[in-house]
Give the backbone structure.
Amino acid sequence: MARSRSAGSRTVSSTESKPDPKAAAAADPAAAREDAGLLAAVPFACAVFAEDGALRAANARYRAEFGELPEHERREALLARLRGEARDGARPREVRAPHSGRWYALHWGRAEHAGAAADVLTAVDISERMETLASHKSRQEKLLFTSRMMSVGEMAATLAHELNQPLAAIMNYVNGSLRLVEQAGGPVQVERALQAARTQAEHASAVISRVREFVRAREPRRDAHELARIAETVLELLRLEAERLDLRIELGLPDALPPVFADRVMVEQVLLNLVKNAIEAMREIAPERRELRIDARLNLDEQVEVRVCDRGAGLSAAEQDQLFSPFFTTKTDGLGIGLAICRSIIEYHEGRLFFEPREGGGSVFGFTLPRYEARG
Ligand SMILES: Nc1ncnc2c1ncn2[C@@H]1O[C@H](COP(=O)(O)OP(=O)(O)OP(=O)(O)O)[C@@H](O)[C@H]1O
Ligand SMILES: [Mg+2]
């Protein structure tokens, strides 16, 4: 074969301290042309590295795709720059080039080049495949989440419907019995027991109507909405409650806040729940310490972040663990559904609901929402 014949004439000794590929090519221009011709025929980025890691030859595609990387002429330096997930400690085969953001599948082969052993690298651009994979994955996750929401919603609707009738009957019987006992003037223990039963039944029906309210609003319509309008609606609903506690709600919303991509009613529900919790957390503290702020900003991920800050007692570590579990409540009149609903709604919007202690005492409950311009 012509290849092996010419190779003999340009043997590069492996004991040479730093072989210079340009010098080798200059020494045998015919062989260099042959290399270039061979590599040019490869439809992927392709390069030959000597044993010591120095680049021997490369095609135009390799130069175009990796030439901008500093030290692309050294095998180890090049590999150190390409990032991928190594499995079982092995070298990663699928890597990303940081300068272009493109993904490559690397394949290494051993060959003889210029009379010495060499490693031949082919790098196949697999960016499109990786993008398709990533978009399938996020679509699947979204679908899974939506279907979980739907089935939970449907189950809740069925349960609420099924339980409503017997519960209404229980309330009727209890009320009727209470009237009879009251008319008969006792016994007082029975009267108290019936009153307690009525309170429990009322609690159960409050849970059901809350769930039904949530399920009814589950067909979401997302659009561009200004957070300021949402906050106005919520504050109007809570004005009386705040006045009764002599509590001023301060709003810190920047004028330039971009619109969010959200279902308005659902986000109102979230903010209402958080502000209500904040107000309730400050019922027991001295009026002059009561301070409620709603702040918003564009965070580092370019999402709109809303924070509801109070000066209540905050949360213990144990309470923080259970915070978002349905039916967790520390209030005698609480249902423990508020935060669980908030979380479902915010996650549906691909946002995040979070708690953090407030500096100087109190709690911060916050959530993020995507900008309308970034909807996808
Ligand atoms: N701002 C807050 N400060 C301190 N504790 C809070 C705050 N917000 C929530 N919590 C704690 O988290 C629990 C759960 O809140 P969540 O809103 O889910 O239910 P709830 O307020 O008890 O009842 P409801 O379903 O009527 O809202 C509360 O009972 C309270 O212990
Ligand atoms: Mg609540």
User: Anything to note?
Assistant: The chain has three domains: 2-125, 133-219, 222-376.
